[in-house]
C-alpha cells in the first residue's frame, strides 16, 4: 500500500536517481515559452516542489487535473526544464545540457511510458521495442535479442511480430513498457499509463511496473486510485504545490 509523501527513502543515504529541488515551472500565457523574469503574464504550473527518488522505489505523483503532475514528471524525465530550481538526473544537472544533450541523457538514462502508447503503427511490436537501440547504434542482432527478451518478460512472447493495430490496449501498453526498458534505464516515468485501460488490464500493467521497480526508480503520475495504491509512497500535488500529510504514524 502506498505511504504518504512524508515516507519512503527520500532522506536515505544512497544517491537519488533523480532529484528535483525547489522546482518552478511557468508558462507564457501567449506563446507558451519558458519565463526567466520579466512582466509577461504567466501560468505557474509548478511552484517550489522538491522530490528525490532512489533506485528500488515506486513513487506515485497524485493530484487532481491541473495540479502539476505531468509538469513535474516531464521535468524529472528531462523532457522540459524548470523556470527556477534544479533537476539532477543520474548525477547530472540537466540544465547544463542543451536540447540535444538532454535528448541523449534521456535516451541513456530514462524510459518513458505514455498514456497513449506512442507506438509506430507500421512496425511490429519487436521493432517498436528495439527503436531506442537504433538511436544508440546497437547492432541488429543485439536489438532483436534484447527486444525479444523484454517482450517475453512482459508476457508478449507470442505477439512479437504483431503490429500495434493487432494488439489490445493492454498489450500495446506492455509493448510500451518493454520499449521503455530496452536501454536498461535507471529511471522509468509513466504518465497516466492506465488511463486508456479497463480495471483488469490496468492491474496487469501496474503489476509489470511494480516488478520493474525492484531494480530501478519508477515514477508514475496518475489520478487513478488503483494505480496509486500500487506505489510505495505518494507525492501529493495541488495547484502546483506539494501537499504535506500528517505524520505517517497518525495515518496508520
TrEMBL record:
Protein name per UniProt: ABC transporter ATP-binding protein
Record's keyword terms, sorted: ATP-binding, Nucleotide-binding, Transport
InterPro entries in alphabetical order: AAA+_ATPase, ABC_transporter-like_ATP-bd, ABC_transporter-like_CS, ABC_transpr_LolD-like, MacB-like_ATP-bd, P-loop_NTPase
Organism for this UniProt entry: Halosimplex aquaticum
CDD domains from the UniProt entry: ABC_MJ0796_LolCDE_FtsE
PROSITE patterns associated with the record: ABC_TRANSPORTER_1, ABC_TRANSPORTER_2
One Pfam family linked to the record: ABC_tran
GO CC annotations, alphabetized: membrane protein complex
Ranges of residues in domain ABC transporter: 18-252
Any one GO molecular function term: transmembrane transporter activity
Domain of life: Archaea
